[in-house]
Amino acid sequence: MTNQPKASLLFLLPAMMACLLVVNSDASAQERGSLATPYAGLGGQRSMADGQLRSENGFVKFRRNIKIPAEVEGKLTQLNIEEGSTVKAGEIIGVIDDRSARLAVELKKAEKLEAKLNAENDINRRFAVSSRELAEKEAEALRELFRKNAASRFEKEKKELEVKKAGLQIELADIETKGNQIKFIARSVELAMAEHELDRRQIKAPFDGVIEIEERDAQQGEWVQPGSPIASLLQMDELKVEADLPAIGTGDRIYAGAPCEVWVYADGKDGEPIRINAQLGFVSPGINSLESYRAWAVIKNQQVDGRWIIRPGMSADIVIK
To answer: Where are the transmembrane segments (predicted)?
Structure first.
């Protein structure tokens, strides 16, 4: 009787070990499945448990960050900015010596005015028309006298020739008028070119932004060459959020123009994100090594007490709902 429980235990031991192997095998399979899913990205960012697609490695960057260059050679006589200055599109931030350019504009204005007066001058034509009318009347009178033998053929033909001459003078006046009109157009073009040369000496902000100055940027009083950097202009009212979005099996949801929500972590990843409705501005046509599309969306930025809420370099996510 004492050996019966031992026999029972020995009989049950293989079955218990088989059950443990099955449980461990299932756990390993689940673990492998969670690592193999294409949406199990860094930190679980790409989980689709809620039906959303969420990006990886997202961050805020400048949409436009450019070096404002000098366009012509000359001395930088004015520099109207300081680092941190806020400028508007079209605002003059610097001037390259423009004295000769301004004089050239004034000269071309005078030449254009002269050409305009000549183009509008019709005195020669009006005089030629009057001369022809008088010559026609005199020729008609001489023809009548010739018929009465009171004038010679020579006098009659001479006056008829004067009529033809007056007609040719009208044609010549018309040609001169057209020539003066062409000269007026040419002077207008020359004035526009002179004004363009003057405008190139005025360094203007191409868009609204914040000025940043580096040591290698030109200083007031320096001689600059075409392309010399004057300052950097950083756009802050519109920024770009760039991130990797899952590619496998998501092509019908990720495309340029697709609605999305951008989450910006102004206080770090552990803080509550700023959520902004946007749309994808670009999706890369190819898939990168992370089996992802590189994508970006443009977002609007705002100021509070003179400070921008969102800044380039902040972590961010793009969420496709």
So the answer is: none
